[in-house]
From TrEMBL:
<dbReference type="GO" id="GO:0010468">
    <property type="term" value="P:regulation of gene expression"/>
</dbReference>
<comment type="similarity">
    <text>Belongs to the methyltransferase superfamily. METTL23 family.</text>
</comment>
<keyword id="KW-0963">Cytoplasm</keyword>
<feature type="transmembrane region" description="Helical">
    <location>
        <begin position="27"/>
        <end position="44"/>
    </location>
</feature>
<dbReference type="GO" id="GO:0005737">
    <property type="term" value="C:cytoplasm"/>
</dbReference>
<dbReference type="GO" id="GO:0005634">
    <property type="term" value="C:nucleus"/>
</dbReference>
<keyword id="KW-0489">Methyltransferase</keyword>
<dbReference type="InterPro" id="IPR029063">
    <property type="entry name" value="SAM-dependent_MTases_sf"/>
</dbReference>
<keyword id="KW-0949">S-adenosyl-L-methionine</keyword>
<comment type="subunit">
    <text>Interacts with HSPA5, HSP90B1, TUBULIN, UGGT1 and UGGT2. Interacts with TET3. Interacts with STPG4.</text>
</comment>
<keyword id="KW-0808">Transferase</keyword>
<dbReference type="GO" id="GO:0006325">
    <property type="term" value="P:chromatin organization"/>
</dbReference>
<dbReference type="GO" id="GO:0035242">
    <property type="term" value="F:protein-arginine omega-N asymmetric methyltransferase activity"/>
</dbReference>
<keyword id="KW-0539">Nucleus</keyword>
<dbReference type="InterPro" id="IPR019410">
    <property type="entry name" value="Methyltransf_16"/>
</dbReference>
<keyword id="KW-0217">Developmental protein</keyword>
<dbReference type="GO" id="GO:0032259">
    <property type="term" value="P:methylation"/>
</dbReference>
């Protein structure tokens, strides 16, 4: 039964304790507003998660992936293979949340590594604020495209913070034969400044996207 799991608020607080220890480090060592919004989307659709194969990319503190695992999904957390400390943070998040079954994997966006080749087909890819630096956008979509070729029905569930009106994924999505659907925050109770008593996302402008192959229409969670 889903109700036996820890609440979203409890899971957030466990991860917040970890993030406070490493706040001075690089981007991925902090619970960003986007992570809380994506986790809220997962929590809102938690009944659809048991049995799903889910990969979180650029996971860092891994709040969305941890929540998905708590809700019954089979989860793999991944971060940059060239940043071992990022992978250690993923592992610590699993340990703090008593999730020894969650696998942690080093994946560098844009690189076709043996670990990427060995990944089983996924149902959902989670990406919280990975569209942070424009120079990374195509490398991210290259990796996502490779995973979509393994399972053409896989979806990328992504939240990003609007930082510049000049940044757009439209041309890259067209290039890689993908499309996206914008999910209104109010449709999953994320149109608020204080989700799960986290004080996040605050007044930041966050967008939620579901990206899929252009040739298939995404089936949104029930």
């Amino acid at each position: 039964m889903l109700y036996k799991y820890s609440s979203f608020q409890q899971i957030f607080m466990a991860n917040k304790l970890l993030s406070s220890q490493v706040l001075h480090l690089q981007y991925g060592m902090y619970v960003w507003p986007c992570a809380v919004v994506l986790a809220q989307y997962l929590w809102f659709h938690r009944r659809s998660l048991p049995g799903k194969a889910i990969l979180e990319i650029g996971a860092g503190v891994s709040l969305p992936g941890i929540l998905a695992a708590k809700c019954g999904a089979t989860v793999i957390l991944s971060d940059n293979s060239e940043l071992p400390h990022s992978l250690e943070i993923c592992q610590q998040s699993c340990q703090m949340n008593n999730l020894p079954q969650v696998h942690v994997l080093g994946l560098t966006w844009g690189h076709v590594s043996p670990d990427l080749l060995a990944l089983p087909p996924q149902d959902v890819i989670l990406a919280s604020d990975v569209f942070f630096e424009p120079e990374d956008f195509e490398d991210i979509l290259t990796t996502v495209y490779f995973l979509m070729e393994k399972n053409p029905k896989v979806q990328l569930w992504s939240t990003y913070q609007v930082r510049s009106a000049d940044w757009s994924l439209e041309a890259l999505l067209y290039k890689w034969d993908m499309k996206c659907v914008h999910i209104p925050l109010e449709s999953f109770d994320a149109d608020q400044e204080d989700i799960a008593e986290s004080a996040l996302p605050g007044r930041h402008t966050i967008e939620m996207l579901i990206i899929s192959f252009a040739k298939g229409s995404p089936d949104l969670p029930p």
